[in-house]
Each structure stands twice: as structure tokens, then as C-alpha cells.
């Protein structure tokens, strides 16, 4: 079994994708109590609540694989792209300490795509040098878009996949055909609370101020990236809104336009919400935060499957070479 430790686990998007591919998550961690509650309800009590900076690496169980979508706010547009000058950005060095202690065979890290270009590429350069030169991993990195892996959401994230065994030849998964739109994932009967009032509609559909203007678009076929603050309802140039006339909403004085529900956000992140394999057990506000922060399950799963394929291919090549050596008759 590929015993796996998960850091910054959130509500479990990355973990679920890897579990679906056969990885065994034996220990997980997050410092958000609401995310831990959601994780425990859906996956079990192997997750610990607490700040990773307070956890001694020696107290983490031995593992072959380490995965983690480490905090992306320091490197994101929304977070001001502060990087390692933000204390959250330094959490990578906590990952480094854990890798020094346990030296797992495989490491998978996820972050926003801006990580690769942040500070003119210097931030990513530091991360790569630590992984390659200090920790002796063979490193692969690529930006993957969720809409290329079965879900109608534009969400570009960098995946960093590392192997201790330098003979392993890894390839990131190829895109698959997108066969659904955001509209295909919408519920038909939605609570009136999700509909916009006449007053808020004007703000939501506004182009913005003189310093920041953007065209407000709704009813997109492929959703904009879900974000952790979408419960605050940003303008339509940032968040996702749909037109879905409702007699109940009309009677309540609301417009035909509404925001997405937490259930719809879960679908846009690839969570198996409709067959009761994943339950939302937190408030709407916390659910919006969790799904906005989550790693898209289907992307994680395709990466995990590619890792399995690379391992199996590497093992087969080794066995083949060993057989060839046995067949050599000494002179």
C-alpha cells in the first residue's frame, strides 16, 4: 500500500482524488476546524486539527507519499502575491522539515499557477532547488486546468510531482474531452436565499470603479475559478452567477439571477455530492470557503493515476533489465 500523509488537507479534494486511485491516507492535517469537521465526516478521524508549525515532524507517521496543497494566498492575485514575505508562504519550509525527517518516495504539491512566475520566477526557483539539490528529488511541474479533466471550471493550478527514484519517467496526464457545462450541474429547485435582490443586482452587474473595470458576464458555460471568499458575492466579473427564473423568487421580490449553491460548487470541484459519497456538514459560508480552497478531485485523481502508471512502468523496466543481466553468460 502507498501509505500517504496529507498536509493542508482542507475538505479533502486532493486526498479524495488520490484515494480513488488507491493511495492510503494514513494521516492528515489542517488548521481550520470547519474543514477538519468536513474531512472527518467524509473520510475518518485520521486528520489532526492544528497548525503544522506546531507539529513535530517526528510525530508524523512514516509514509511513502506526501501530498499537500500548501497555502496559495501568498502567491495568488487575490492574496497580493506576497510570497515568502507572507508568513503563510514560509509554510513550504515546514514541508521541507517533514521531508528531511521522513524522506518519502513521492511528493505531490499543489498551488496557484502564479507560483511559477512569482517574484520573476525566484520563488519557484527556491522551491525547486530545495527539492532537487537539498532533498535529492527528481522534480516535474506543470500547470493543469480543471476544465481539461472533466469539470466545467477554469481553474489553473501548478502541480509539483517529485520522485526519490530518479529512474522513474513521469508524464502528466493528457487532457480529456469536456462533455458538460456549468448549466448541466445546476439544481432546478433552489432556495430563494440564493437569488439576488434588485439592490444587490446593481452592484453585482456593475463594471467596477475607474481603477478596476471588468465586463460583468453571467451564465458562462465554463465557470470562473471558485474562490474561498465567494460567500461575500463579488461582482459578476469575478464570481459565477446564473439566470434561472423562479416563481418563488419573483414573489419574494428577487431577480431571476442567483449565485451558485454550495452543492453546485461541490460538483464544480468534482466532489461526488449526488450519490451521498460526500456530505456537506458545515454552514454555507464555510462550504463556500472549503470548495473555493479545494483541489479539484478529478484533476488530483488523474495526477495520482499517472503516478501509479509511472511507478508500474519503472518497476517493469527494472525487472526487465534484471532479467537481461541474468541472461548474460560470463566469458
Q: Please report the number of helical segments.
A: 9
Please give the number of β-strands.
Answer: 10
Order of H and E elements: EHEHEEHEHEEEHEHEHHH
CATH architect. name of the largest domain: 3-Layer(aba) Sandwich
Distance linking N and C termini:
42 Å
* Biggest sheet descriptor: 7 strands, mixed
- Estimate the mean pLDDT confidence: 91
Say which CATH homologous superfamily of the largest domain is assigned: Vaccinia Virus protein VP39
Q: Could you name the CATH topology of the largest domain?
A: Rossmann fold
Considering DSSP H and I runs of 4 or more, what fraction of the residues is helical?
A: 25-40%
At the first level of CATH, the class of the largest domain is: Alpha Beta
Q: Strand sequence of the main sheet, in spatial order?
A: 3-2-1-4-5-7-6
Number of domain modules: 2
Amino acid at each position: 500500500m502507498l501509505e500517504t500523509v496529507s498536509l493542508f488537507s482542507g475538505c479533502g479534494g486532493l486526498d479524495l482524488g488520490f484515494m480513488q486511485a488507491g493511495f492510503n491516507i494514513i494521516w492528515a492535517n489542517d488548521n481550520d476546524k470547519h474543514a477538519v469537521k468536513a474531512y472527518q465526516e467524509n473520510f475518518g478521524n485520521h486528520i489532526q486539527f492544528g497548525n503544522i508549525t506546531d507539529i513535530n515532524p517526528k510525530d508524523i507517521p512514516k509514509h511513502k507519499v506526501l501530498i499537500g496543497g500548501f497555502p496559495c494566498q501568498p502567491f495568488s492575485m487575490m492574496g497580493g502575491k506576497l510570497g515568502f514575505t507572507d508568513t503563510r508562504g514560509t509554510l513550504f519550509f515546514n514541508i521541507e522539515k517533514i521531508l528531511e525527517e521522513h524522506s518519502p518516495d513521492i511528493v505531490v504539491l499543489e498551488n496557484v499557477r502564479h507560483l511559477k512566475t512569482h517574484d520573476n520566477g525566484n520563488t519557484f526557483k527556491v522551491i525547486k532547488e530545495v527539492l532537487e539539490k537539498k532533498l535529492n528529488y527528481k522534480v516535474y511541474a506543470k500547470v493543469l486546468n480543471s476544465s481539461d479533466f472533466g469539470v466545467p471550471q477554469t481553474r489553473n493550478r501548478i502541480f509539483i510531482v517529485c520522485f526519490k527514484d530518479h529512474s522513474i519517467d513521469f508524464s502528466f496526464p493528457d487532457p480529456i474531452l469536456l462533455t458538460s457545462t456549468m448549466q448541466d450541474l445546476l439544481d432546478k429547485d433552489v432556495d430563494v436565499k440564493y437569488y439576488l435582490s434588485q439592490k444587490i443586482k446593481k452592484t453585482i452587474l456593475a463594471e467596477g470603479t475607474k481603477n478596476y473595470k471588468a465586463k460583468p458576464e453571467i451564465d458562462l458555460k465554463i465557470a470562473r475559478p471558485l474562490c474561498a471568499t465567494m460567500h461575500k458575492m463579488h461582482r459578476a466579473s469575478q464570481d459565477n452567477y446564473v439566470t434561472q427564473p423562479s416563481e418563488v423568487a419573483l414573489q419574494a421580490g428577487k431577480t431571476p439571477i442567483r449565485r451558485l449553491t454550495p452543492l453546485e460548487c461541490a460538483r464544480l470541484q468534482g466532489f461526488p455530492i449526488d450519490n451521498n459519497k460526500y456530505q456537506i456538514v458545515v454552514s454555507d459560508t464555510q462550504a463556500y470557503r472549503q470548495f473555493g480552497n479545494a483541489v479539484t478531485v478529478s484533476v488530483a485523481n488523474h495526477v495520482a493515476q499517472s503516478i501509479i502508471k509511472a511507478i508500474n512502468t519503472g518497476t517493469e523496466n527494472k525487472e526487465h533489465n534484471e532479467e537481461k543481466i541474468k541472461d548474460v553468460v560470463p566469458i
